[in-house]
């Protein structure tokens, strides 16, 4: 079995910049996936593992939440999915000897890439107060430490329990049950930092905070908008769905500040045209929009639809749908009548001709799907923007019929399922009532802290214990310095993890790392029988996930087992919640879910059917809208124009191609032409020239937020790039230090990572940062 050592980080001068690619996937994607599999797993293990990814009797990819079709190929994975599997199924190990040789202070100075490359965690590790290193402990000792600190608190609200989107439905259900049994709703999760704006806007406008389309709807659409999204890197299997839609005659409109290769041309590695031919052109129209201009764009498109209806009454709008199923149309139409086209031009950076041509595409389409990701969700005005997308679709009845609807594309593989299972700091009263009736205790009703509020509360010592089920909170959160200070102010920090990450090096007085099984690994119960868990994809499909590899260590426990063992230690053997029964049998957990969570009736039977089942969605299934008005709501939203002071730019943070969320697989972003480095800022050549800078200069990026302190990310290379004037981009987590904790979206409280006001300061006489070191 291959046991290659982790790659060393390149030196100071290794960074290379080439021309961006104009197509995605193809043979290079296959080659990169196999090379990484070989480096991390070896040849045989790579073949055995990848052939089980996203198969009906296999395991769900630990990467993105893109759905699988009913008919699946043998190779139902993408390049980045293969990377995610290789990282989890690696044969590299992080042992107690590693921790003895690397004090926490040293780990804190390492990059996310270096930390992740060390391999899988193998034993529970404990950092006592005052100790420079982690030491191995038994599981019993680890649970005693957690229980001791939780029992010491003056109030349950002095603890916060974070969740990553990788957690299974069963683990998420048990986790929220433990937290509410303990007495708090402090359940921040990764949704707070990504698609919270989508849920807020959709809940208000259509009554369900999830997308309304199936995969077949995407295949059958006449027109697909892909907005604020880079599927070629973040959910590459979406490219196959767009290719299929194109084959059936659909048009695709890409709306994004950057020309992403995957939306220009797709060379599908599973067919001859993709391997030997030119592939498929995906985007029929590319709108290079300014950051934050999407609200203005969709409002302008809707205004043009109203103008077309006025010119040809009864031929454009779906009046029957509007009359029967919507509320607020008259106020909305009156608002559009006052649209300021100069403000639209300033906000979008697009010409009137570009917008009118796009409206012509809309008028010729019978069914429209709008897909989006974090390019829409991480601005101050994100919730109004997504409400405006809904307005646009409602005008022509494009919700609740085939080939049409809203499609927020979730990132992590079960982030949507976590929320369905009750991971939410503002729980629905009906859900709490169901928990009460199921278990006989009164769950807390007061709202808890979300992710941003948790950071503030830890910083003021209002929260003293931080427990994370998966994820890498430090690297996912905004305002890195403030987040690190907050975690270090805790009495205890606990992380349930598969691999080493930066959050393990940012400790409270005491810290625990609890190693857990990955998706790729077999999960056996106390009787030795193999168990499975379930996940929900981005389109509300629930299906089973069964790992096949031996666990990375005999000391690993599953996430459900960890939760149940901690609960038994915390609440005692006679608690009214049957924790021991849940630990012994996941079917018992699913039976409880079936009684508590709507849509999961007969859960155990339905999930055993190949492919699983689809959760109900009232707007999609029956054009019923469970909003306050009982209808789909048109909303009135002011056009937002993001203006910055002279000499400043608007920065967005984004992923590289060798990255998934906070996991750094490598130091290349080959589609954008960045190689062997990450500390780059992509800037329009004209904006560089205006500041007396040139391509290749080294700069500090300094963010400015109202009257607060400046935040600085040091030693970035300026790269002349095709971005809208006045806009720039840099990778997270390196650029997260620039995102102010106070700068959040209205309503959703999501950090505004796509609209940060910055200036560039030249580094005279200085050398670039070495490798991929933290800021």
Could you please describe the fold and organization of this structure?
The structure is a single chain. By secondary structure, this protein is an alpha/beta fold. The protein has three domains: 120-188 and 414-607, Rossmann fold (3-Layer(aba) Sandwich); 196-409, Dimethylsulfoxide Reductase, domain 2, CATH 3.40.228; 649-762, Beta Barrel (Barwin-like endoglucanases), CATH 2.40.40. The protein contains 32 helices and 33 strands. The two termini are 36 Å apart.
Please summarize what this structure is.
This protein is an alpha/beta fold.
Number of strands: 33
Q: Sketch the major β-sheet.
A: 6 strands, mixed
Tally the helices: 32
Shape: globular
- Order of strands in the sheet with the most strands? 6-5-18-17-16-7
Roughly how many Å apart are the termini? 36 Å
Helix content: 25-40%
Main CATH class of the largest domain: Alpha Beta
- Low-pLDDT parts are 767-773
Mean pLDDT: 92
Q: Any idea what the CATH architecture of the largest domain is?
A: 3-Layer(aba) Sandwich
By CATH, the topology of the largest domain is: Rossmann fold
Number of domains: 3
Instruction: Classify the secondary structure makeup into a structural class.
Output: alpha/beta
Q: How big a fraction of the residues is strand?
A: 15-25%
Radius of gyration: 25 Å
């Amino acid at each position: 079995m291959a046991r290659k050592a982790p790659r060393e980080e390149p030196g100071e001068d290794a960074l290379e910049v080439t021309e961006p690619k104009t197509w995605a996937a193809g043979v290079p994607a296959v080659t990169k996936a196999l090379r990484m599999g070989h480096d991390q797993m070896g040849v045989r293990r790579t073949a055995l593992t990848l052939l089980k990814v996203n198969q009906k009797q296999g395991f769900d990819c630990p990467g993105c939440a893109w759905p699988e079709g009913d008919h699946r190929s043998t190779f139902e994975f993408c390049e980045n999915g293969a990377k995610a599997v290789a990282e989890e199924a690696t044969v590299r190990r992080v042992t107690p000897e590693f921790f003895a040789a690397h004090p926490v202070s040293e780990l804190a100075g390492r990059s996310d890439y270096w930390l992740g490359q060390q391999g899988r965690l193998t034993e529970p590790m404990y950092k006592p107060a005052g100790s420079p290193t982690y030491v191995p402990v038994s599981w019993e000792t680890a649970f005693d430490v957690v229980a001791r600190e939780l029992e010491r608190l003056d109030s349950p609200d002095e603890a916060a329990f974070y969740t990553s989107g990788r957690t299974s439905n069963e683990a998420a259900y048990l986790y929220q049950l433990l937290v509410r049994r303990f007495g708090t709703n402090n359940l921040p999760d990764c949704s707070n930092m990504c698609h919270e704006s989508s849920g807020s806007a959709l809940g208000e406008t259509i009554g369900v905070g999830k997308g309304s389309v199936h995969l077949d709807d995407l295949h059958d659409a006449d027109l697909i908008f892909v907005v604020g999204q880079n599927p070629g890197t973040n959910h590459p299997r979406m490219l196959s769905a767009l290719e299929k839609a194109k084959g059936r005659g659909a048009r695709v409109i890409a709306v994004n500040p950057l020309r992403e290769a995957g939306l220009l041309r797709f060379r599908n590695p599973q067919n001859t045209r993709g391997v030997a031919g030119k592939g498929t052109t995906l985007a029929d129209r590319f709108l290079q929009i300014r950051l934050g201009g999407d609200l203005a764009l969709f409002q302008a498109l809707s205004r043009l639809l109203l103008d077309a209806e006025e010119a040809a009454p009864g031929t454009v709008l779906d009046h029957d749908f509007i009359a029967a199923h919507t509320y607020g149309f008259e106020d909305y139409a009156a608002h559009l009548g006052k649209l300021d086209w100069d403000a639209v031009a300033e906000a979008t950076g697009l010409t009137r001709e570009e917008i009118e041509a796009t409206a012509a595409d809309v008028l010729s389409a019978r069914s429209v799907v709008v897909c989006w990701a974090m390019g829409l969700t991480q601005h101050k005005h994100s919730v109004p923007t997504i409400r405006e997308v809904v307005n646009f679709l409602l005008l022509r009845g494009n919700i609740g019929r085939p080939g049409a609807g809203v499609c927020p594309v979730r990132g992590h593989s079960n982030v949507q399922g976590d929320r369905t299972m009750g991971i939410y700091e503002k729980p629905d009263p009906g859900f709490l009532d169901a928990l009460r009736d199921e278990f006989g205790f009164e769950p807390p009703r007061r709202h808890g802290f979300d992710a941003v509020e948790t950071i503030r509360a830890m910083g003021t010592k209002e929260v003293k214990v931080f427990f994370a089920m998966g994820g890498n909170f430090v690297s996912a959160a905004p305002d890195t310095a403030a987040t690190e200070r907050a975690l270090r102010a805790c009495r205890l920090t606990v992380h349930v993890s598969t691999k080493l990450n930066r959050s393990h090096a940012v400790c409270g007085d005491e810290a625990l790392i609890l190693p857990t099984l990955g998706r790729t690994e077999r999960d056996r119960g106390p009787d030795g029988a193999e168990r499975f868990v379930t996940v929900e994809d981005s389109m509300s499909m629930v299906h089973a996930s069964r790992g096949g590899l031996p666990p990375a260590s005999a000391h690993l426990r599953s996430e459900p087992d960890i939760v149940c063992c901690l609960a038994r230690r915390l609440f005692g053997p006679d608690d009214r919640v049957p924790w021991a029964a849940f630990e012994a049998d996941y079917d018992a957990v699913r039976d409880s879910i079936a009684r508590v969570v709507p849509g999961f009736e007969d859960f155990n039977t339905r999930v055993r059917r190949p492919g699983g089942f689809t959760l109900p969605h009232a707007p999609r299934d029956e054009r019923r809208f469970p909003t306050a008005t009982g209808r789909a709501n048109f909303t009135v939203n002011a056009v937002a124009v993001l203006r910055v002071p002279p000499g400043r730019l608007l920065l967005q943070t984004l992923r590289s191609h060798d990255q998934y969320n906070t996991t750094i697989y490598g130091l290349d972003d080959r589609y954008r032409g960045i190689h062997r480095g990450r500390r780059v800022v992509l800037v329009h050549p004209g904006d560089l020239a205006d500041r007396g800078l040139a391509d290749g200069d080294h700069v500090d990026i300094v963010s400015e937020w109202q009257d607060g302190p400046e935040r600085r990310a040091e030693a970035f290379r300026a790269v002349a790039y095709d971005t809208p004037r006045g806009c720039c981009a840099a990778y997270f987590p390196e650029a997260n230090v620039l995102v102010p904790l106070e700068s959040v979206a209205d309503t959703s409280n999501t950090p505004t990572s796509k609209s940060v006001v910055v200036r560039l300061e030249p580094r005279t006489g200085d050398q670039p940062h070495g490798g991929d070191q933290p800021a």
